[in-house]
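Hi! If you just cloned this repository, the fastest way to understand the data is to look at a raw example. We've pasted two of them here, unedited. The first protein comes first, obviously.
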Amino acid sequence: MAEVTSNAFFTTLQENEDAGKKSFGLCCTEAALLEDLAPHFRRLSTHPLQDYVHLSQLVLSANKNAILTDLRSLSLQNDLIILISTQPDGYKLCFDHLQLCEKSFSALTLRNSISFGDISHQMQDLANPWMMDQTIVGLQKHLSGFTGSEFDNLRLVSLAQTQNDLKEVEPLLRRADLIDVDISCCQSGERAIGLTAQEVCQLTHYAGRGTSAKILSIQLASRHSWDLECAATAIWYMLYGMTMRQEPVMKKMRQYTLTSAIEGRKLTFLFDANTQHWWCNTSPSEDEEKLIPCSYRDYEMASEKQEISDRLQYLLSLK
């Protein structure tokens, strides 16, 4: 593990370690990439991050074996790991790390395209019980040649669906352990179609607020200034979301139990006024681990129309 000298932004976050702060480790695959990102990070404010999050280590990992070793070490010490890479397999390395941890996890990636061969190879790992499911957000249909119906534990959210209402993507982000952002999914001078940088930052903010996210993978296919700025800002909003993290406590939530079962399910919806998060529960016990992230729209459909939304139906099927 090679520790590196950071710029002023990271130096500030490394200072004043406090037991009450959320800690994160940052791993970058190339020194030159970190140098290219440095001026974009320097433009960012450390307020209010410095009061709530602490950078425990900033390291360089040059090869796959070193990255896996460093991810393992960082995961033992931090609430979140951030991996920045130009390698197309940066996401796969994070995926492999979670598999080696031998604990169930969910993955979500922001990208504009994926081939059937790529996803087929990834989904083969579902034979291993540790990966529960995978979601791809921001997919452009004209760049991808399959619907995802071949896999039960794969959910595709198109670019149009994502941009129609970002809040409806939030429940999927809230439950994901691995968040992957392929910066080429963003609009830029060379890419007219895609998520805007603002939308990507809003989505990483949602992910940071959730308590499940353990790894954020940022993949940069180019070193264009626009992409570098988007990557740095997306990381900032992930950390900003962490400043608002609160574990769900059922006893503190408002509960709305539906009087009649829907499709054979007795549903209770819960609303956390502190976080503004909605949850669904199908168990009579007060076990926060059984809560399913949802939205107000899910509650509205169930209570007024006696229908379960497609997304909630999908999440219920994973339980």
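Ok, and the second one:
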Amino acid sequence: MSLQVLVIDDSPQNRKAICGVIRSHELACVEVADMAAAKATLQAGGINFCILDLRIPADDGDSSPRRENGRLLLQWMRKHAAYTSLPVIVVTGEDKGDTEFTASVMRAGGSAVTEYMTKSSTIGEKLDQKIEWAMNLCGHTVTKEKEPFDKEPRVIELHADKVLFMGAEVWHETGQDTSARDACAILSRRDKHGYIRLNGPSIAKILKRSGSNPISTPLNRLLDRCVAAATQKGIACERADVMPNSMGGYHFTENVRVVVIGDWATVWGIEPTPAEVAPASPVAATAVPVTPRLTERQQRIQDLKTQDPKLSNEQIAKRLKVSRATVVRDKKEAGDK
């Protein structure tokens, strides 16, 4: 009989993503949204370990979840003999660098049977590792190995109303924010070096997002769901395997094949993928050619020119502390004038 995991989180989306990772381990999942429901489920018996979001409501009628409720629930559990050694994985975005709060949570839970992680790393390898830790404490030795992400190209399909990653839906149009889908469409373009790279402010400017509404929030949410989809299929995956934010900005890796379905993206200057080469879901991926990348200095030169097209070679050389001849050579090798 499989282990039963209690997921305590007031966000349906978070519970769905976490339960997807749990089920990839062939474990059963029980979901609750508040402290009162968690206590009732634990008292009913059969739970082997918990995944707890600290910021939860006290009960179904409580509209103001507080991080203190999660800590109180931990304290309640450890005061009852039946739950003193129950493994608990605390998953939260509430610490905000507050080390004393983190320490107080660990004291409440007991370090031997409590693990702590932030929500920014909830989905994927890190949650996998915590689940395996809990399974081992429950006497279930974990032996499964995950398929490497770069074993074959992974396909992401951009539709007008949804985004699919390896055949799993990771975004659905709800009549609200389409920035994650649109950013993916913009980043699907390629130059001779591979997928283009754009920093967050540049993407936000194209999408006409305000500075107080960074593109990182919807993109990271989408990437977390991509990681969850891969994990459910037994594939080792982190955000950076799909779309890292480094060396000049956000960009798809060469392990990802982006397919745009329909003509909705022409507003961003993106040509739809012809039907004869667009994959049907679930995806049967084909090889993706690997093209040379810019060196770090060439990328920095491009970034400086993007920020200020009027910069001369002398000014760039001064900023990078290299010779003008080096700048000219790097620009020539990168195909720039």
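That's it. A detail worth noticing about the second one: The chain has three domains: 4-137, 155-268, 296-333.
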